[in-house]
Structure formats: structure tokens, C-alpha cells
Amino acid sequence: MSSITIKDAQGIAGMREACRLASEVLDYITPHIKPGITTAEIDRLGAECMVSQGTVSATIGYQPPGYPPYPGHLCTSVNHVVCHGIPNDKPLKKGDIVNVDVTVITKDGWYGDNSRMYMIGECSIAAKRLSALTYEAMWLGIQQVRPGARLGDIGHAIQKFAEGHGLSVVREFCGHGIGQKFHEDPQVLHYGRPGTGQELVPGMTFTIEPMLNQGKRDIKELGQDGWTIITKDRSLSAQWEHTVLVTPTGYDVLTLSAGSPPLPPFVKATTT
Ligand code: MF3
Ligand code: CO
Ligand code: CO
Predict the structure, then answer these.
(1) Could you tell me which of 69, 71, 112 has the C-alpha nearest to residue 206?
(2) 182-209 per-position pLDDT tens digit
(3) CB within 6 Å of ligand 1 — which residues?
(4) pTM tops 0.90
(5) Does 242 show up as a binding residue in the annotation?
(6) Where in the sequence is the domain holding 29, given as residue range(s)?
(7) What was the pLDDT predicted at 34?
(8) Which of 65, 84, 195, 242 is least surrounded by Cβ atoms within 10 Å, i.e. has the fewest?
(9) Domain tally, the chain
(10) Please, are residues 201 and 6 in contact by the beta-carbon 8 Å criterion?
(11) 209 known ligand binder
(12) Could you tell me how far CA 2 lies from the centroid of its own chain?
């Protein structure tokens, strides 16, 4: 049984606040992300920002069935790490790429979830291309969101673009409904067929968070910490994430703030 929550005006206000704050945590961290910083330092900065906001991390202590408690205030996934990388004491070096994924919980209990890619110093053309194309793929998915559209439309837009550029789509992890819980129904797959799947209804809030690989789509667990996921062929992987609201006329991207990166040129508005 699917139990998608539809947010009323109060819920939408709660989600707006949570999502803006989640984006502002990334804004706070951004100027510090350069060669030499460790992902543990990024985690500390994120935690510090959450304290000043009066939010708490949704990830620290997070323990779905079969997992150990997640030990970070955020996730840091470097190079061939696909997702759920755990902050550690290894300095980032020139040419690395890192995804920082932040989910906060507000005092009212609402969750906001988002992630961005960062290039550490000068990166390879291939790494920059992977990140830029993954960002575009996320936005192409977002642009499918409107009442009457189906989840398969989102997945298809992302998959067609990614595979058309020679990238592969990770299948095992997906976007998700979000509200007063971290992971709600529905699952938002980043591949699919147009016109299939759950129909979108105003008041739904969910994430779109494609993970695209330079090589094959296959993944595996690093197998040491119970969390870290890597590409099986050790090729680079990138991810971007926004939380979106289905509005009566289209979509509203909730995880935006002053420091959000510029929109791709084909995106006319963050609210439709
Ligand atoms: N923020 C991730 C997502 O986008 C989930 C991270 S769960 C953690 O769904 F435990 F690894 F932090
Ligand atoms: Co996330
Ligand atoms: Co998410």
C-alpha cells in the first residue's frame, strides 16, 4: 500500500522552511570546500550551521532496518563513491569531486533534503562534464513535475538525457517522498517509461536526486562501514538533489537559497 502524504498550507510552509534551511547549510559550507579540507571538517561545519539555525541533522543516528546508525551530520561522497559516504579525516585534493548531502529537521518536525557537487581545485574535463550533466539531468526531471504527470515521466527524462550522453543511471537508490519523515512514499526512480507510475497531485513533496556514473551503472557496498556505496568499476559518480513541491500549475523547488548554483539555461523559473 502506498501512503503518500499531501501537504496542506501549514505543511507546505513547514516544508518551505526546512528546505530553505537545508540549502543554507550548503551555502554555509561552500566557501570552505577547497583542497586540504577533510570531509570530517565539512561535517563539523554543517553541524555548527544546524546549531545556529535551531535545526538538527536527519542523518546522524539514522538507522533503517539492517543498517548500523549513520555516524555523520551529512554525507560526503568523493569520486567513485555513489552516495552515503561517511565523513573522515582524509584531506580532499585537487581534482577530487565531492557530493555533500544535507538533510535537516526543523523544530516543527519538517525535513528538507538536498545535495550539491563540488569540484576541488581544477578537475578533469570528464569530471566537470559528469557533474554538469548530472545537474542538467536533475533539472530536466524537475521540469516534468506538474499535476497529472506521472513519476515515469521524471525517470524517463533523466534516463534519456543521461544515457544519450553516455552516462549510466544508478538503479538501487532513488528520490523519495519527504515531509515529517525522512523517506516517505513514493519512490522516485531516475529511470522509467513516460506515462507510467504514480500520478502527481498538488501538495506532494518529494526529492529528485539522480546518481549518474561515468562507467557502468553497477554499484557495490564498500563493505566496511555498512553505508558507503561505490561504483563497481570504480568510475566517477555524481549526484545532485532538490526537494520539490507539486503545485496546482507545476512545481516549486523548495531547496533554494541565496547560494544555490545558477540554473541551467533551459530552466526559465524555479516556480511554475
Ligand atoms: N540524504 C540522503 C537522501 O538523499 C540519505 C542519506 S541517509 C544517511 O536520501 F544515513 F546515509 F545519511
Ligand atoms: Co539527500
Ligand atoms: Co534524498
Answers:
(1) 112
(2) 999 999 999 999 999 999 999 999 999 9
(3) 59, 62, 70, 75, 84, 101, 103, 113, 207, 209, 227, 241
(4) yes
(5) no
(6) 9-253
(7) 98
(8) 65
(9) 1
(10) yes
(11) yes
(12) 22
